[in-house]
Structures are given as C-alpha cells and as structure tokens.
C-alpha cells in the first residue's frame, strides 16, 4: 500500500467536504474547490478524517493513490490557510513593483516594462524591489519567471 496514500487527511471543523460520485468538493473560509477523482480511487469520510482507497494493486491505481491523497490534502490546506510563496528576482536592473491591483510591473532587461496580471483568486505583492509575494488558494500557479525572460546565451 502507498505510504502517502494510506495516511488519513485531517479535516478542520471550518471545512466541509462532500463526495458525490467521483467529484470531491471542499469548502472553507477561503472559498471552495472541486476535483474529479480518477477511476478506481474512492474517498471515504469518517468523522474529521478522509481516507483515500484504491480499487486494487495494479500499477496505475498504486500511482494514483498517493497522488490523489496529496491533491485532496492540498485542497483542504488551500481553503483554510491558503498558499503563499515569496520569490526573489536576481539580476542587474531586474525589479518588481506593485502596479494596479492584481498587476505586477516587472523590469526584466527588456527595453520596456513587462506587466504581469495575476490569475483569478491570486494576489501579488511587490514588497521589495527585488522580491514579490504570491498568494492564493491553489498551490503553484503561473507566475512570472523564466518564460518571461529567456536565458542569456
């Protein structure tokens, strides 16, 4: 059995989880999220614990077991605490500044500034000229990075 998949997910009292057919809905103070469970993976709630179970021990189901448990756990964390990541911009002349709400003005070595608009549900802050803070319900998300300024030859 998957070491990650067999760990139960603790659900705080401020979060409600519902499973209808193969759709998981998680609602909490920061909003709600839904995800479709893969075939052969089920989710059972026992009190304040969620358990992920798989159909059998085939390779595909074993790999999806731990992945599904982690994704649902990240959903619970996202609707309660949210995710935050601080990125540092390193380079001569590279800067980030908070412009309009949800827009980050970046100086990335081009002849013009690059304006990056935050995805829906995400907030951007440019606390220092060479750093920015990215917050949202979902972990990760597309932020400015290597794709906005290609690597020097």
Sheet having the most strands: 3 strands, antiparallel
Strand content: 35-45%
Measure the end-to-end span. Answer: 47 Å
The average pLDDT score comes to 83
Topology as a string of helices (H) and strands (E): EEEEEEHEEEEEE
If you compute it from the alpha carbons, what radius of gyration comes out, rounded to the nearest whole angstrom?
20 Å
Count of DSSP strands: 12
* pLDDT < 50 runs, ≥5 residues: none
Across the major sheet, the strand order is 1-6-5
Tally of individual domains? 2
Q: State the helical fraction.
A: 10-25%
Shape: elongated
Q: So, the CATH homologous superfamily of the largest domain?
A: Ribosomal protein L6
What structural category do the secondary elements indicate? mainly beta
CATH architecture classification of the largest domain: Alpha-Beta Complex
Indicate the multimeric state: single chain
Q: In CATH, what is the class of the largest domain? A: Alpha Beta
CATH topology of the largest domain: Outer Surface Protein A, domain 3
Q: Count the helices. How many?
A: 1
């Amino acid at each position: 059995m998957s070491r990650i998949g067999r760990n139960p997910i603790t659900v705080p009292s401020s979060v409600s989880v519902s499973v209808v057919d193969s759709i998981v809905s998680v609602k909490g103070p920061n909003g709600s999220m839904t995800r479709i469970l893969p075939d052969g993976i089920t989710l059972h709630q026992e009190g304040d614990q969620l358990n992920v179970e798989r159909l059998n021990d085939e390779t595909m189901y074993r790999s999806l077991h731990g992945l599904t448990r982690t994704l649902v756990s990240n959903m619970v964390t996202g609707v309660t605490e949210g995710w935050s990541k601080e990125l540092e911009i390193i380079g001569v002349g590279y800067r980030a500044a908070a412009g309009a709400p949800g827009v980050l003005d970046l100086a990335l070595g081009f002849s013009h500034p690059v304006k990056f608009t935050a995805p829906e549900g995400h907030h951007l802050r440019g606390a220092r000229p060479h750093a920015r803070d990215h917050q949202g319900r979902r972990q990760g998300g597309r932020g400015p990075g290597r794709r906005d300024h290609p690597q020097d030859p």
